[in-house]
Amino acid sequence: MALPLPLRHPARLSPLLPVLPVLPVLPVVAVVALLALPVAPGEEGGAGPADAVSALAVVFCGVRLLRARRRPLTRTAAVLLGLPVPGLALAALHAVSPGAGLTGLGRYLQVFVLVPAAVVLLVRDRADLRLLAWSFVALGGWQGAVGTHQYVTGTGASYQGQDIRAVGTFGVSDVMGMATVVSFGLVCAVGLALGRTSARERTLAVCCALALSVPLALSFSRGAWIATVVTLTVQLVLSGPRRALKVGAAAVAACVVLVGGPGVGTAMLQERIDSITRVADAPDQSVTDRYTMWAAATDMWRDRPLTGVGLKGFPEYRDGHASLALSSGSDTEGAGAAFRRQPLLSPHNMYLLVLSEQGLIGLLCLAGGWLALLVCALRGLWRTRAAGGRGLDCALVACGLLVWQLVDFAYADIGGPSTVLTAVCFGLIAWWALIGGDQVDSAECTAVPAGRGSRPGEAVLR
Questions:
Q1: How far apart are alpha carbons 54 and 124 in whole angstroms?
Q2: Listed residue (187, 178, 238) closest to 209, CA to CA
């Protein structure tokens, strides 16, 4: 009787097998993908499709945990992810109204606790993290393409009397949205390019990074520029001193050739870059408003140093603490929206916003968790390099996103449709810091034959 032949390639018998491992992380990818949808002109705040899917992802994650009946997180992960909750709960009790307290509490829990925890639980390995990183790059490419078209055709947001500012599909209601999305994609592309993956993947990542630098420049966002430059520098240094010197020299040479030679870039863009060095000597009105709101936030904190004025309390207390230098609002127009005066409802500094509304307790809880994640993420990067460098791309992506966010928070805060992407970003960072840095990549493992001092099937790091 003939014996059945062994299955040498079982994966070919079922085309669904390659898809099944990524199913848990697909809800997170869907959140990222839905941010490509256009925002209605003039729409302010409110939950969008991506926010709704992020809530469904949290529910989906909870159902999976109930069915598995296991402890979902380690003690360290539970503490770090839940660290913002005490400060938020205390600030919600001191809110100007119960409705404002509940609204603010829900938003903060979504961005910094629930969605990040769901991402941590749904991402299972470094392949999932790479999938999320590429989805960031794809979203940045789409928004960047829309923004570049707006600049070329003069259909973007108004900037110095011309509708040339690239804002993507977010419109003037979230003028920083496209810059944030493109920056995330650029940081992910650079991290993937600096890793030790295939040459084809690295080449594609380099091309994406170069392409994304164009819409980032056309966003005219000085805060995003500063955060991106700092982050890319950190990523290069973390990838290795020699590589940092080579890439840094090439970048400087390219800037000299493109900008100093043919003069690539408009006069408005060059003036915007020059204005970064004049924020103290000759600040424009937007910088003056920001300085005034920073001073108002600091003054609110001095009145209530421990608990702050309560969630959503900054707009209510702003006029009582701001000087006369503060304007009534910022002018917004273009990208399909009519002219309107948009009120200044936050200090455009996440640290000062938390300090003024949640006090020192809230800032220590929230920022303390971010610093702990940074330490854990860097520890995972060192372990990855010591183990041979496989997975370095994941480490650089996670560390880069966290560095970018921490720097950008000095010039911006949460708000707008793109905020849900910040929640996914923190989840990706938390997964690497708490789980991925200690995880062995499947490509790094090889089964050790029995009889060589190890158990049958034991995997060792090559």
A1: 18
A2: 187
Could you tell me if 424 and 119 are in contact, meaning their C-beta atoms sit under 8 angstroms apart? yes
Specify whether the CB–CB gap between 39 and 174 falls below 8 A. Answer: yes
If you search the block for the tokens 């905020």, which residue do you land on? Answer: 419
pLDDT tens over the chain, length 462 residues: 444 444 444 444 344 444 445 578 899 999 999 999 987 655 555 678 899 999 999 998 888 888 876 667 888 899 999 999 999 999 999 888 889 899 999 999 999 999 999 999 999 889 999 999 999 999 999 999 999 999 999 888 888 778 888 899 998 878 888 999 999 999 999 999 998 888 899 999 999 999 999 999 998 888 899 999 999 999 999 988 777 777 767 666 666 555 554 444 567 777 777 667 666 565 667 778 888 899 999 999 999 999 899 999 998 888 888 777 777 667 677 666 767 777 778 888 999 999 999 999 999 999 999 999 999 999 999 998 887 778 899 999 999 999 999 999 998 888 888 899 999 999 999 999 999 887 655 444 433 333 433 333 333 333
Tokens of 284: 């424009």
Angle formed at CA 242 by CA 237 and CA 244, multiple of 5 degrees? 35
Q: Which has the closest alpha carbon to 78: 436, 457, 434?
A: 434
Q: How far apart are CA 232 and CA 241, in angstroms?
A: 13
Complete DSSP assignment for 407-423: HHTTT--S-STTHHHHH
Nearest in space to 400 (alpha carbons), one of 190, 253, 138: 190
Enter the DSSP assignment of 447: E
CA distance 10 to 23: 20
Could you tell me which of 450, 417, 440 has the C-alpha nearest to residue 143? 417
Residue type, 293: M
Burial group, residue 169, by CB count within 10 angstroms (0-12, 13-18, 19+): buried
For residues 98 and 313, the answer to whether their CB atoms sit within 8 Å is: no
Residue position matching structure tokens 């949205």 = 177
Q: How far apart are CA 426 and CA 423, in angstroms?
A: 5
> What is the rounded CA–CA span in Å between residue 367 and residue 176?
22
Angle between helices 350-386 and 392-408 (to 10 degrees): 160
Name the strands in the sheet holding 330-334, side by side, starting at the edge strand that comes first in the sequence. Answer: 162-165, 157-159, 330-334, 337-342
pTM exceeds cut of 0.70: yes
